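Q: Please design a sequence for this.
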């Protein structure tokens, strides 16, 4: 059983003790104790529904409490919901401990937000005439809330999950700031309406539209997760059919992503290019296994069958709408800049940009991966070969982007065959980027994008 380390339990105990101190004095004695109970009940019910249906969190209610109530009362709002909400816990971990930790974490974060808001005069600012000024204390409260959550999350990652300290906090604050800021704006709207002539009922009307939007985003995420699961299943099927591709598709996806980032593409296109790299060989599912695993030379007819795999792949993925330009990359990643590629012999700018990216990534990984029939080429040698073929086979812009990305991030060559046997040193077996054997002849390496001919 995976036991929570003792140092993590001590850390949680310290957070719980600090949270209990934050709840003093007892907030239910507050003149507006009914508001504390109302917000706490709303948060408890909303959080239970949100977590069971994976539609987000109810931070707007917590931050509304921070903007309306004194710090101890605002901190209490988080307590019942955090203790009662379902807690996802890895096998063997105590879900009760996880709920107690979550409760302490939220109590401390809300207390910090409410205290920050109060110190900057936020309580008076939301009452009406000074409303525009209310943005300043509200923004500071959101920052305090986010910062406390980040600090506590990083600490528990380092102690309970043994994540290295340099990684435990990296990037968490910036990733969480944007969504929590949106929650803070909704909470500020609720606080202002709460003090308006329309009262708390009008304030609560802010919540249904937010929950509907969370539900819509959750539906999109579930659909995307289903598509990604389909992609993983397709790639695994290809890997089982053709041992050469084992791990190759994922690495081509990674190299395609590196090129896209170096070219300054936005995050959505970078993700699309990653999918393009992962799926580029999916059409091999339509190629007879005996041809993919054939050890001897391919006949011209067999080569033509293998060269149909981009079209097979395109047919397989054409119905997955979110792939976008990745579908064109699957179809055209074996086209060459000089027009001698396949399946359609496109040249230059006729070849989609996504396909030009994947062509370079595919060739690079094929050269730097060890096969059963040859050793991997050094990264430097593979780069030289790509540069030699830039302008005829590969887009020079894509080659240059990969070279720059490799200079910044490096690359780990890999084995993609289960039966690696000793081979002659790479220097004694020169490899051309895409050999073009004469009709009726078989290149010594007849099935890779690089090193075994064209696939």
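A: Design:
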């Amino acid at each position: 059983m995976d036991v929570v380390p003792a140092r993590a339990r001590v850390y949680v105990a310290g957070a719980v003790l600090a949270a209990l101190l934050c709840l003093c004095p007892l907030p239910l004695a507050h003149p507006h104790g009914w508001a504390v109970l109302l917000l706490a009940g709303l948060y408890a019910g909303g959080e239970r529904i949100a977590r069971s249906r994976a539609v987000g969190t109810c931070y707007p209610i917590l931050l509304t409490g921070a903007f309306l109530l004194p710090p101890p009362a605002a901190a209490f709002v988080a307590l019942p919901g955090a203790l009662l909400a379902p807690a996802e816990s890895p096998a063997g971990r105590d879900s009760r401990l996880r709920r107690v930790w979550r409760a302490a974490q939220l109590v401390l974060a809300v207390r910090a937000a409410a205290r920050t808001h109060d110190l900057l005069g936020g309580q008076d600012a939301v009452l009406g005439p000074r409303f525009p000024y209310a943005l300043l204390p509200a923004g500071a409260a959101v920052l305090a809330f986010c910062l406390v959550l980040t600090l506590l999350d990083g600490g528990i990652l380092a102690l309970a999950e043994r994540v290295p300290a340099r990684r435990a906090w990296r990037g968490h604050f910036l990733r969480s700031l944007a969504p929590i800021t949106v929650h803070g704006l909704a909470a500020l709207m609720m606080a202002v309406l709460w003090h308006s002539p329309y009262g708390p009922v009008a304030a609560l009307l802010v919540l249904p539209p937010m929950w509907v939007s969370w539900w819509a985003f959750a539906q999109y995420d579930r659909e995307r997760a289903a598509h990604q699961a389909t992609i993983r299943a397709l790639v695994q099927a290809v890997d089982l059919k053709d041992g050469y591709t084992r791990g190759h598709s994922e690495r081509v996806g990674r190299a395609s992503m590196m090129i896209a980032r170096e070219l300054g593409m936005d995050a959505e296109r970078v993700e699309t290019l990653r999918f393009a790299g992962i799926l580029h060989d999916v059409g091999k599912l339509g190629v007879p296994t005996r041809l993919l695993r054939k050890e001897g030379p391919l006949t011209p007819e067999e080569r033509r069958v293998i060269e149909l795999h981009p079209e097979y792949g395109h047919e397989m993925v054409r119905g997955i709408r979110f792939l976008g330009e990745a579908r064109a990359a699957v179809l055209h990643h074996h086209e060459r800049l000089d027009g001698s590629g396949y399946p359609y012999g496109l040249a230059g700018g006729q070849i989609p940009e996504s396909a030009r990216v994947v062509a370079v990534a595919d060739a690079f990984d094929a050269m730097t991966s060890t096969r059963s029939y040859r050793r991997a080429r050094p990264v430097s040698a593979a780069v030289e070969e790509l540069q030699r073929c830039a302008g005829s086979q590969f887009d020079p812009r894509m080659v240059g982007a990969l070279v720059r990305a490799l200079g910044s991030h490096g690359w780990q060559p890999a084995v993609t065959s289960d039966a690696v046997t000793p081979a002659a040193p790479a220097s004694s077996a020169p490899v051309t980027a895409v050999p073009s054997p004469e009709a009726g002849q078989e290149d010594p390496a007849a099935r890779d994008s690089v090193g075994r001919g064209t696939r």
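Q: Thanks. Anything notable?
A: The chain has two domains: 6-205, 223-428. The radius of gyration is 29 Å.
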